[in-house]
Amino acid sequence: MKEALRRAVEATDLKAFWRHLIRIVADRSGNPGSRIERLAAALARAQERLEAAQARLGKLEEHKAALEEKLAQATDPNQQDRLEDLLGLVELDIAVCKARIAREEYAIRMFKDWLEEMRSSGAEDATG
Known about the structure:
Helix content: over 70%
Distance between the termini: 28 Å
Largest sheet: none
Number of helices: 4
Low-confidence stretches: none
Radius of gyration: 21 Å
Strand content: under 5%
Shape: elongated
Mean pLDDT: 85
Order of helices and strands: HHHH
Structural class: mainly alpha
């Protein structure tokens, strides 16, 4: 597992995200309760990022609809070109936002699985 995470760090622009995961996985010493707390905090942050990305996606889709409406009404070829360029950028932003949402959903599932695994293995009982 650690090696797979290390390869992911080398192959991505999200180095901080993957380094954080490596620290969580690699931290097998110490208090199991503190590992659970860190995982729970990472889960909460991922859920916050997911909510923010979903809100941004909604705003981008509204912006796209407004641009499409303006484009449909535009008669000037120069204005149409500018609006098409802006529409292309918004569509790229939407694609990026959807990728962020997919990443956060994956991270949330992963953190929940890890927490469940740690709790079912009795790690929580060791803390009291």
